[in-house]
Specification:
Order of helices and strands: HEEEHEHEEEEEEEEH
Strand content: 5-15%
Number of strands: 12
Shape: globular
Largest sheet: 4 strands, antiparallel
Helix content: 10-25%
Length: 344
């Protein structure tokens, strides 16, 4: 008979357990970035699809109306003058609302009254001290059509719609109430990551689009661009762009209405470039840049690394690098600049 001595081994030693934990930690550390990359790739694809859907809606609208939609109508906060008169009826509509029937949002569209105000913003509702002495904007001369807080339109302006939000966006989706950026009263506004390509100077003068000449983009206040006017070619010209919910100076656009400085997206406005997180306030002290917070309103950008999306006039969507020259962005935005630019 053989007699065995000692005890049977029932588990891991402490050292072995620590080794296993370390290996698991390493595997997790290697796996998490891969998962994040996969998620961002999926989000970026969905973002591109959202913009594609909106671009096709613009073209469907054009087929039905023989004109591209305007960037907006009835602004009550632009500077009015004899040369640039404001609209008689102030409704503050974003032209994106005209696309609702073509993006499967008929129920929302049916609840909007286009003869009434979508937001109550008029030029004398925000502080005139924004402008230097003698430079305060005159009243547009128009009349606010009803009250957005009671006519039903303002309530709809607070409704977030998935097609107007990029899945990569992590900012606050709502515009605060009680400011020159909100629809009016205690109502908040729902933001959009996508908007028409416009000249940012639309806020400085009313109805500039018809007088922009060779500098004209596809869209502007009361624009009525036809495809035949895009002589640079629809496939060569920006139609819609991407931006972020969070900006330092001003406010992101709302999908349904236009309020102070909510004109759209200008790829070549001011000193902007794609994903420009910098801004120098009036004090002259630059802000500390924060990823995801664009320097100012109307800037193009995204939370995608390296650039943002643009929809071309033919409905295709391109991801444009943040290193592209501003001059090329302007060439891609103008519709009749006698240039055929590309984003490569």
């Amino acid at each position: 008979m053989i007699i065995r001595s000692g005890r049977s081994r029932l588990g891991f030693t402490l050292i072995e357990l620590l080794v296993v934990i370390a290996i698991i930690a390493i595997l997790i550390a290697l796996l998490v970035p891969s998962v994040q990359k996969v998620r961002e790739a999926a989000a970026r694809t969905q973002c591109s699809n959202n913009l594609k859907q909106l671009a096709l809606a613009v073209l469907t609208y054009e087929s039905a109306n023989k004109r591209l939609p305007p960037a907006g109508r009835g602004y009550g906060w632009c500077r009015s003058s004899a040369a640039y008169p404001g609209d008689a009826k102030i409704t503050n509509q974003n032209g994106l609302t005209l696309l609702l029937p073509f993006i499967d949002q008929q129920p929302v569209d049916s609840k909007l009254n286009r003869d009434q105000a979508f937001a109550n913003t008029v030029s004398n509702t925000w502080s005139p001290t924004y402008w230097p002495a003698g430079q305060n904007p005159a009243d547009t001369g128009g009349t606010l059509q009803g009250n957005a807080t009671t006519n039903g339109n303002g309530i709809m302006m607070s409704l977030p719609l998935h097609v107007f939000r990029c899945p990569s966006e992590n900012g606050d989706p709502f515009i605060p109430a009680g400011t020159a950026y909100g629809p009016g009263g205690t109502l908040t506004g729902a933001k959009t990551n996508y908007d028409f390509i416009v000249r940012e100077w639309d806020y400085t003068r009313c109805n500039t689009w018809k007088k922009d000449g060779a500098l004209r983009y596809m869209f502007g206040q009361n624009s009525d661009c036809s495809i035949s006017q895009v002589t640079d070619g629809m496939s060569n010209t920006f139609m819609l762009g991407e931006t972020t919910f969070t900006v330092y100076n001003g406010m992101c656009n709302a999908w349904g209405y236009r309020a102070w400085v909510m004109v759209g997206i200008d790829p070549a406005g001011w000193n902007a470039s794609i994903n420009d997180w910098n801004w120098t306030p009036g004090s002259g002290t630059p802000i500390t840049p924060i990823l995801g917070r664009l320097g100012s309103w109307a800037y193009p950008g995204s939370l995608h690394a390296g650039g943002c999306h643009f929809a071309m006039g033919d409905g295709t969507v391109r991801f444009v690098s943040q290193t592209i020259a501003k001059s090329r962005l302007e060439e891609m935005a103008t519709i009749a600049g006698n240039t055929v630019a590309n984003t490569d």
